[in-house]
Amino acid sequence: MSDSGFFVSVEGLDGSGKTTQVGLLAQTLATTGRRVTVVRDPGSTALGERVRDLLLEPRAGAPVSHWAETALFLASRLQLAEEVIRPALTHGDVVVSDRYLDSTLAYQGARGISRSEILELHRLFGLTRLPDLTVILDLPVVLAQTRRESGTAPDRMEQESSSYHERVRAGYLDLAGQFPDRIVVLDADRPADEIARQCGSLVKDRLNVGRAT
Ligand code: TYD
Predict the structure, then answer these.
(1) Per the omega criterion (within 30 degrees of 0), is the bond before 191 cis?
(2) Is 157 touching ligand 1 by the criterion CB < 6 Å?
(3) What is the pLDDT of residues 117-129, one digit of tens each?
(4) CATH of 6-209, one of 1.10.287.90, 3.40.50.300, 3.40.50.720, 3.30.450.90
């Protein structure tokens, strides 16, 4: 089923500046006259926020299997898609999501779960509406870690090793090669305002309003 909305996801390692860019992008898009809905995945629904807490709480010693982890991320996404994203797109909004399925492909992919299995699960769950545009904020793992360490205590995912995060970064870059029409990689090792300008023009161009403003 088609909709009149536009769906953008922003992806990257923890510490890549994703959340800042999502906020700046939403401000830029608000000037186009389109209604903008901002969400975060996992989260942005009552159920999703509870699942997010379960997934990210650092719980030393409490095992989380790779498939259980994948299932929980998908459960949160399913609720988010049904409750917020689908209605917003049907209404014609621009939806900006802080992470979406590429996070599962990169992070759970780095656990060893195959891309085809993850895509098949999305299909089975009816999560077939992919983003129209995905921006990956790319940054070397050491830089992302340094940025993150100046913030709050690491969550369960952030506690993973550097080699895990290297696999996540490689996974993202590989996805950009697999889906070149949907995914754009931006160098995140630059001032936030410079990235925001590039990201804003990119999205506005795809929305076909860029040339008029
Ligand atoms: P994130 O949304 O980046 O929040 P914060 O900026 O507060 O750390 O954190 C979500 C974490 O969950 C991040 O480490 C990536 C991970 N993640 C997955 O492993 N799989 C997924 O499908 C999603 C959406 C996130």
Answers:
(1) no
(2) yes
(3) 999 999 999 999 9
(4) 3.40.50.300
